[in-house]
Structures are given as C-alpha cells and as structure tokens.
Specification:
eight-stranded mixed beta sheet; BirA Bifunctional Protein, domain 2; 29% helix; alpha+beta; 588 residues; five-stranded mixed beta barrel; Gyrase A, domain 2; OB fold (Dihydrolipoamide Acetyltransferase, E2P)
Length: 588
C-alpha cells in the first residue's frame, strides 16, 4: 500500500503507531539540526520531522525535497512539542524513517496554500494546481455532499433518475443555442440542450411520474460571476400534481440540504411573495429579504409641488437607508454618480436627511416645506438619523433601479451576511411579457407554462389588456437575492398549447416544425404535470457563502467563455471541416 493513513487522519490517540503516508510537499524548513516537512493531501496536512541524529542519507533526502514533490514516507507518530491548535493534526507529528520520492515537481507558478499569491488568470491556466488548494477542495467537497443529499432525498420520495439526450433539436426561444454539425446529415445541426424541458414532459406522458437528474445544460450567452456556458441543474418533474404539491416537495428537499449539509434550519413553511409585491417593495423578482429597506411609492405625496422632474414622472419611489443621514455632500455626490451608471440607469438622485434633532434637509428644499418632507419620510418609515433616497421615472424601470440601489446600500451597511440564509418562494408571475419593440407577446418563463386556472378566461381573450392580466402557474425559489430555481405547472393538452403558440405569434407550421413531437405527444393522454429546476452551481456557491460559482466547478470557463487551461475553443483542421462540409468565414 502507498499509505496506511491520510494526511488529515492522525491524532494523539495514534501515538506510537508506525504509519505510511503519501502526498505532496507543502513546504519544508530546517530549524537547527532538524528538518520539518508539511505533507498535504486532500484530507489535510501532517507535519513530518527528521531528527539531526537520523542517518545522513535520510537527512539529505529530506533537505532535497522541493515544493509539490510527491513522496511516500514511513515513520512513527509522536506527540509534538510545539502543538498547533489551528491544525486538526496539530497535536502530533511523524518521525520519519524513510522517504520515497514518487515524483518530482518543477516549482509551481503560485503558492498552493489557503491564500495564494497567484492571480485569477494564472490560476485558471494551471487549474489542476489551483484545485489542490484547500478552499477549492472544500468547495468541491460541499458540491459532492449536496449532490448526495439531492439524490438521497429524491430517491426516498420515489423519484427515478433518468438521463436525457445532449444532442437535440434547436428551438431558439430564449438564449442562443450551442450547435453541433452533423457529419452524417450534411448542412444540418444538433443543438446542445438549454434544459431538458421537453424531454421531462415527454417522460410524464410516458408514465414516469417522478423524474429527476443532475444534468448539464448549455446556453450561449454573455457570462458573469454566476453564469457559465455549461452549467448544472437539478431537474425535476412530477405528474398528477398542483402547485402546492410541487412547492411542498422541493421545499422539503432544500430543508434537507440545509440541515444535513450545513446544520442550518430554515423556516417551515417558507414565506411566499407574489411577483407584483416583490417588484413593488424590493424592485426585483429575486428579493433579498435578509434586511428591510423596502421601496415605498410616494408619487401622490411629491407631485404638484412645482418640481418638474417629479411632476412629469409616472412613478416616484423611495427607500430609507438606516443611520446614513450623516453622509457628507461628497458622499452624496458620489452616490448620485453611482446611480447614473449604465448598470443602474437613473438620471439623478434626490435625498432627504432625517436629522437627529427632528429637522430635515433635502436636495429639493426649495419645492417642499418641512411638513412636506416629514410626510414623505413618514411614508417610507424613516427614523431620525436615516437618509431617504428618491428616484423617479417609468414604474417598473424605477422600481428596478431602486432595487439595485437598495442592494448597494445593504452591502455598504453590512446587511448581507453570507452566513445568514433567508429563502422564499416567488409566485404569481405574469404569464406573458409584451414587447413594444417587436409588437408581440413573449413567454415570461417558457411556452409550456400553464396559466393559473382562474385566469384561463383572460388567456383565451383577444384583448391585450386581458392577456396582460394572466398570471402563470409558476414559482421561483429565491435565496439571499439570487434565484436558485424556478418552474411551473405545465400545459398538458394540445388545445391549450396551441393557444399559447397563437398568443406568442408562433404559427401552426412553425409550431409543428419546432415542437411537433411534444404537441403530438399531448394527444396521447398527457397527465397534469409540473416541476422545476434548481441551478446546482448557484446552490453550491450560496451554501458556501460565495457569489461566484467558478470555485464550485472543477474546470470552469472565463468571462470570454474560454478554458485557458486547455486553450479552448480552438480551430479545427481542414480535414474535419471537409468531412462536415463546412466553410468558415471569420470577419476580421
């Protein structure tokens, strides 16, 4: 055997045992006549020691070891004279009797430690070295535990794990597809699935009433910290269910994951909030409810006072930032410039200071009396010492801007503790979104989402105003300002699905070409069904207290969609292009 124990296993109770360890040299150092070596594997670090009185060849072997050498050692567990309480193995060390160098290493380009001296680009290039570092080992270990929790829970609830294809038909509704040319069908292409949506519905038609898989999905879209071109979903579907059945089932799954992976109990039941309330009070359909600072509409209070900016606005909203009345003019000017950034989109910012002595100071004092300002501050529940921040414009756009400003102030005030978890369900989304630019409706979720049963009368109306009132039988699971999962009760009959395509402006011929297989399947006794999918990478990151998902993916892409470690994507040779009957035309 290469080892009898791992490098994180030995304790004081093992004193006197003869052991064999194998791993990587974290570092070595000489103190007086003794040589100390930190030996690391994914389980931890054990200190090795070579005494000055050891044979010369053993001392020479120990002093010649470099960082990241792979070695095997045999020795005896002894109690450390100078214990290290920060290490699980810090009460012991191994007095080694032999060293076997299994493989040498060149000097690594960065330190393989808790805090590395390597930048993000160099660590991405040598990802296999970065993965040796404890933070990434903990991240992937958490991912593993969560995956096992998912499988254990769903298996216990009667779900079957069934794989669906990766090479499918392109249905460009939503994000761009990644496409794959077919050598055997020249000029034709597969698409990589953005999700297994249609296949899991077909499994319901086939009678597999509880399905799941932890599955790779692919979307060709712009990247950011919580988005990758290939990502993983916990994909689930159930037959003969209503919305309440689905929410209870997967609320139970998340509760199990929190309890067993983190030792955290979340509320039972979880709070629920309509999409309309989320937008009105938080400016986001994925609200962070770890803190208050709700948005309040003050339109009626501030219009009609001669301030043209407000008088000409559809909507005026405000938030109260606790304890921020002491912001200096320089800080307020900087905050005004911050909301003007394209990421926020405001044209300006109005503020009201609620001074500790009960007076008010505003950037629009000339238009509003102290009594007026008090009425506004009372309406937003502001207290002495608070700072009221006001934005105006079109209703939904302004609410969204206020939502972004609320999150920024929450960050500045330290309200967004990653160790505090506040999950909730968002329900009652609009079924449809109207595009003024295109003059047509788009599906808020996807074209297989059913309307709420009580709204079907509006769904079959030809009036735009009625269609805009229809709520989807849909739901999102939101945690700490991030949407972790979403789903819906599906359309399960061909007539309603045909009506949905009609509302979306998808003609019968186009619908048949893109979705004929599922429309036809619905004619063969499709059961009522619904489900949802969780973004597994995001789940892992938030459970680990991080915003970026990259550390929770073994081999992620960078912001340009490149894997710099293997230098992908890359050109392919002309022989392959000829086989595929493809010519490339790259614009300079």
């Amino acid at each position: 055997m290469y080892r009898t124990h791992t490098c994180g296993e030995l304790r004081l109770a093992d004193q006197g045992k003869k052991v064999t360890l194998a791993g990587w040299v974290q570092k070595s150092r000489k103190l007086g006549g003794m040589t100390f070596i930190d030996l690391r594997d994914r389980y931890g670090v054990t200190q090795l020691v070579v005494d000055a009185a050891a044979p010369a060849e053993l001392v020479d072997a120990a002093t010649s070891l470099g960082r990241e050498f792979v070695i095997q050692v045999t020795g005896t567990v002894v109690e450390r004279q100078s214990k290290n309480p920060k290490m699980p193995t810090g009460d012991i060390e191994v007095s080694i009797e032999s060293i076997n160098v299994l493989n040498k290493s060149v000097t690594p380009p960065f330190t393989i430690e808790e805090e590395s001296d390597g930048g993000e680009d160099i660590r991405a290039k040598y990802r296999y070295l970065d993965l040796r570092r404890p933070p990434l080992q903990r991240a992937l270990a958490l991912r593993h535990r969560l995956a096992q929790e998912v499988r254990n829970y769903l298996d216990g609830q009667g779900f079957m794990e069934i794989e669906t294809p990766y090479l499918i038909k392109s249905t460009p509704e939503g994000a761009r597809d990644f496409v794959v040319p077919s050598r055997m069908n020249p000029g034709q292409f597969y698409a990589l699935p953005q999700s297994p949506q249609t296949f899991k519905q077909l499994l319901m038609v086939a009678g597999y009433d509880r399905y799941f898989q932890i599955v790779r999905c692919f979307r060709d879209e712009d990247l950011r910290a919580d988005r990758q071109p290939e990502f993983t979903q916990i994909d689930c579907e159930m037959s003969f269910v209503e919305q309440e059945d689905v929410l209870n089932m997967f609320e139970g799954m998340m509760r199990s994951m929190f309890r067993n992976a983190l030792g955290v109990e979340i509320p039972d039941p979880l709070p629920r909030m309509s999409w309309y309330d989320a937008m009105d009070y938080y400016g986001s359909d994925k609200p962070d409810i770890r803190f208050g600072m709700k948005i309040h509409e003050v339109t009626d209070l501030v219009k009609g006072h001669g301030f043209s900016v407000f008088d000409g606005s559809e909507y005026i909203g405000a938030i109260a930032a606790p304890g921020c009345a002491g912001y200096t003019r320089k800080e307020l000017d900087a905050l005004t410039e911050w909301v003007k950034r394209p990421q926020v989109g405001a044209k300006g910012l109005v503020y009201i200071r609620c001074n500790e002595d009960g007076t008010f100071k505003s950037s629009v004092d000339k238009f509003y009396s102290p009594e007026d300002l008090k009425g506004i501050t009372d309406a937003v529940d502001a207290k002495a010492g608070d700072l009221v921040l006001v934005l105006c414009g079109a209703r939904r756009k302004t609410q969204t801007m206020l939502g972004v400003l609320r999150i920024e102030m929450g960050n500045r005030l330290g309200y967004r503790d990653p160790k505090v978890f506040a999950p909730l369900w968002i329900v009652d989304f609009p079924l449809l979104e109207w595009s003024e630019e295109d003059g047509r409706f788009y599906a808020m979720h996807h074209p297989f989402t059913a309307p709420k049963p009580e709204h079907e009368k509006w769904f079959y109306s030809d009036r735009k105003e009625d269609l805009e009132r229809v709520c989807a039988n849909a739901y999102d699971f939101v945690l700490n300002g991030t949407e972790l999962g979403g789903g819906s009760i599906r359309i399960h009959n061909a007539d309603m699905q045909g009506r949905m395509f009609e509302v979306l402006g998808i003609g019968k011929e186009e619908a048949e070409y893109k979705f004929g297989f599922i429309i036809n399947a619905f004619k063969f006794g499709a059961p009522p069904h619904g489900g949802l999918a969780f973004g597994f990478d995001r789940v892992c990151a938030l459970f680990g207290g991080q915003e970026t998902i990259r550390d929770y993916i073994a081999f992620p892409k960078n912001n340009q969609g490149r894997d710099v470690m293997i230098d992908s994507p890359s050109l392919i040779d002309q022989v392959q292009l000829d086989e595929l009957q493809i010519k490339t035309c790259v614009k300079e």
